[in-house]
Amino acid sequence: MKVTLISIPVRDQEKALRFYTGKLGFIKKKDVPLGEGNRWLTLVSKEWQDGPELLLEPAPNHFEPSKVYQDALMKAGIPWTQFDVENIDDEFDRLTKLGVEFSVKPTGMGTVKVAIFNDTCGNNIQLVQVLESTTT
């Protein structure tokens, strides 16, 4: 069993597409019209194009519990998901120059360094850099 799709709720798929491709560097993989202005819109990492797809899910527009949950996470400052990066300080600098707003600047937390930004689509996203190898 493996993860092939991860869903993230967005209020505006087109705005999310611009942010996730233009600023974060993801690549559009699938874009299938579903009617009523909705799309099956997935992205992949430029570095891992055969990896899991990120679905830009318009659920908050159609399913009130999704909107309530998304709003609660945002208000509490809790990330919806996380993306791993090689060098969090470099990513922070790059994204800040592109106008991305961070609520948490790169901060060491044991064996990782994290930062949290607003994706402009209703979500906090956490970046993580592993500082040393960990085993469980």
At a glance:
This protein has helices spanning 13-23, 64-76, 88-97, and strands at residues 5-9, 27-35, 38-44, 53-57, 81-84, 102-109, 112-118, 124-130. It has one domain (5-130): Roll (2,3-Dihydroxybiphenyl 1,2-Dioxygenase, domain 1). The protein has 136 residues and is an alpha/beta fold.
Structural write-up:
The structure is a single chain. The chain is an alpha/beta fold. The chain has a single domain, classed as 2,3-Dihydroxybiphenyl 1,2-Dioxygenase, domain 1 (Roll), CATH 3.10.180. Helix content is 25%, strand content 38%. The chain has helices at 13-23, 64-76, 88-97, and strands at 5-9, 27-35, 38-44, 53-57, 81-84, 102-109, 112-118, 124-130. The radius of gyration is 15 Å and the shape is globular. The protein starts with a strand and ends in a 6-residue tail after the last strand.
> What do the pLDDT scores average to?
95
Report the sheet with the most strands, covering strand number, pairing sense and barrel closure.
4 strands, mixed
DSSP E strands, number: 8
Helical stretch tally: 3
In what range is the share of β-strand residues?
35-45%
Question: Would you identify the regions where 5 or more consecutive residues have pLDDT less than 50?
Answer: none
State the CATH superfamily name: 2,3-Dihydroxybiphenyl 1,2-Dioxygenase, domain 1
